User: Which sequence fits this backbone?
């Protein structure tokens, strides 16, 4: 991913944002998609014009990150929990986010403009 | 990791630990009675275990108030935020103050998006954190 980003002259700061989005989604897949069992996560990186596109696929339970509700970030310290925060960050870090269910796979696609 | 060989797993575990050390540097110093914990590098799912352990040890040692110096941090994920929140709560339980200093760039933005700027005491740098508190 960083290799293609360098070729495309995507600024380091934008790559870090993409890195964060990928980490948040991958963490989500590791924790929930396979209900604690083993499973795979495929990562495909490509260029689409000026956009760096990362596509993440897994064969876990259906889960649409674009449909999930955002956490209430105005709650005080004692009532905060980390759930949902990862998805919120993921959404805010990328320029484009889409989801599709492809047969038995979840496919999440991120786009970051260079 | 898709490996069931115990030795392979152990080696993989060791190399992950080494990698975590390279990705996140932790240091502690005393400054005017405050314990300044400085983080340098990345606080993410790989490095968060080390940070949680060290931070808990420093807080439990009861050296008083804590400033988390994040001026050297380039990257923080929700796993990192969670560990910082955990540390803040732990300090609170021990009646120690816990403040954060030196947010910048992407880390500052992540804190803002997560609403952490309203639940934690945040200062531009360590000096102002110690002076104000």
Assistant:
């Amino acid at each position: 991913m960083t290799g293609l980003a360098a070729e495309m002259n995507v600024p380091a700061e934008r790559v870090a944002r993409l890195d964060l989005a990928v980490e948040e989604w991958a963490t989500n897949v590791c924790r929930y998609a396979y209900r604690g069992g083993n499973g795979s996560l495929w990562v495909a990186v490509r260029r689409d014009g000026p956009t760096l596109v990362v596509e993440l696929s897994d064969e876990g339970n259906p889960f649409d990150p674009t449909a999930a509700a955002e956490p209430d970030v105005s709650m005080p310290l004692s009532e905060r929990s980390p759930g949902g925060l990862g998805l919120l960050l993921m959404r805010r870090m990328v320029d484009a986010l889409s989801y599709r269910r492809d047969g038995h796979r979840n496919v999440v696609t991120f786009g970051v403009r260079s | 990791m898709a490996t069931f060989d115990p030795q392979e797993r152990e080696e993989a575990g060791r190399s992950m630990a080494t990698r975590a050390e390279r990705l996140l540097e932790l240091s502690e110093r005393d400054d005017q009675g405050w314990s300044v914990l400085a983080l340098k590098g990345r606080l993410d799912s790989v490095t968060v275990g080390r940070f949680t352990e060290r931070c808990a040890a420093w807080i439990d040692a009861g050296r008083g108030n804590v400033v988390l110096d994040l001026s050297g941090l380039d990257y923080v994920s929700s796993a990192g935020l969670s560990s910082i929140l955990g540390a803040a709560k732990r300090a609170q339980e021990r009646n120690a103050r816990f403040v954060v200093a030196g947010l910048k760039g992407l880390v500052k933005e992540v804190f803002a998006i997560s609403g952490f700027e309203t639940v934690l005491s945040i200062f531009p740098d360590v000096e102002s954190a110690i002076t104000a508190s």
